[in-house]
Amino acid sequence: MLSHQSYDPQANKLHMNQTTIDRRRMLAGTAALLGAAHTKIAAGQSTVDTSPGHVAEPERQTPVTRKCDVLVCGGGPAGVSAAIAAARTGASVQILECHGCLGGVWTSGMLSNVIDADKPGFNAELIRRLDEANAQYGPIGIRPATWLSYMYDVETMKWVLESLVAELNIGVQLHTRVVSVKLDESKRIRGVFTESKSGREAWLADVVIDATGDGDVGALAGCRFQIGDGATDDDCPCQPMSLMGVISAEPELLHKYTRAGSSDGKHKDRFRAEIERGGYKPSYTKPTIFHMGGSIASVMMNHEYGVRPDDAAAITQATLRARNELNRIVRGLQTLPEWKNLRLVATGEQIGVRDGRRITGRDQVTVDDVITGHQRAESVCTSGFCVDIHAIKKSDGGYGNRGIKAKPFDIPMGALIAADVDNLMMAGRCISGDFIAHSSYRVTGNAVAMGEYAGVAAAIASRDKVAPHNVAYEKVDNELQAIREKNRPSS
Fold it and tell me: How far apart are CA 203 and CA 181, in angstroms?
């Protein structure tokens, strides 16, 4: 059980009772991905063993680093979009990000492409800003032109996002991980606790947005959640993880193994044959090259199966295996004459997680929505992407849609509002939805739009001193449309 904490405004300290987290309950949904068990103990303080497998931590006083209107946990596509939208309403905003840059899977994960981005607002603004920086490389060529997708330069994406955040005076702290939450007696979230090189800190806010991707904040707060296609403590039927890489090679060679360079759509099979000719059988049966122009391309060539997204040790081993595989694939290809100049330029800092926690919300997106193309009165965006389920087992190979043809469907604002804890919102792939629906809406073009609505709703809730579920959708929509119009480029 997570104990309650009380805030002393005079001392500006949080007096915390000892927290004990049961391992089984953590796996069921109430503890952190990286848990509070690794928190720092001050010099000179002792610990007392209460069981062979646990250590009791002493009570402490935690300094409050900042109090703001909207606290965004996670600086990826959803989190940055939420922070920008909230700040544009006039709210005070703070981003907490565990990696060394903003952008999440776009940057630390080196995804190098944005899918389902044909949406107004920050999606369109971001394309324009990348265009102005000569860092948007056009369609990735894997889908019809009506489903807008594009490639981008990873380093420029970092710069564009961080410049925007600075312009809006949004607080940012990188290299900082959320390890616990502050709940009051009415099950309202009041802030979070973090660990970093600065030690343990507290951050208080009127509304907290979980944009961690894996629903870390919601899990810490005790919210119900789902993982994969019915994951249990002993089994994880989740989509595989992939580590992206960037390579350099002759432009003609890279082009040859992309959809744009293929007349029959079998470019992935031919690329796999090349990898196998180099002496390695890739774990992903549909290895893919995303040509960014010139001699640079990003690659997705590996799958890590059955890895729990809430198990740091398992994710670590998956990352190490994946990076090893990328290097071995490249070294094998280099033995072939036409690939002799191939180079592995970089690999992602973080492995790409498709299936994390999906926090239970006040509404949910379901497979029925996908099949029927359900349109919602309180829509934050329309998902136009297909059902994209990468094989859960290696023996199944590749990816598919389980026979489900997706029709464009809406994501309701209620799916962004936690059901079990007040003042907590979600944005990105950790919103409330089932396994099939999630396989469509999880792409980052949708995450951006979700972030915008979550950011504005959170800002209004703070301003009006109400919980997000008491904010009228029309009020959020009207304010967001005004923000979008104000930031639309003049023709």
Answer: 9
Looking at the structure, give the CATH architecture of the domain made up of residues 245-347: 2-Layer Sandwich (3.30)
Domain ranges in the chain are 5-63, 66-231+357-486, 245-347
How long, in residues, is the chain?
A: 491
Residues 6 or more apart whose CB falls under 8 angstroms from that of 14 comprise 5, 6, 7, 8, 61, 62, 64, 182, 193, 202
Beta bridge partners of residue 182, listed in sequence order: 191
Please give the pLDDT value at position 35. Answer: 36
Q: Name the residue type at position 249.
A: A
Which CATH number is 66-231+357-486's, of 3.50.50.60, 3.40.50.10420, 3.30.2380.10, 3.90.550.10? Answer: 3.50.50.60
> How confident is residue 232, by pLDDT bands cut at 50, 70 and 90?
low
pLDDT for residue 353: 96
Within 10 Å of residue 347's Cβ, how many Cβ atoms?
Answer: 17
Distance CA 19, CA 38 (A): 12
Determine the average pLDDT of the residues in 450-465.
Answer: 99
pLDDT digits (tens, 9 = 90+) for 346-378: 999 999 999 999 999 999 999 999 999 999 999
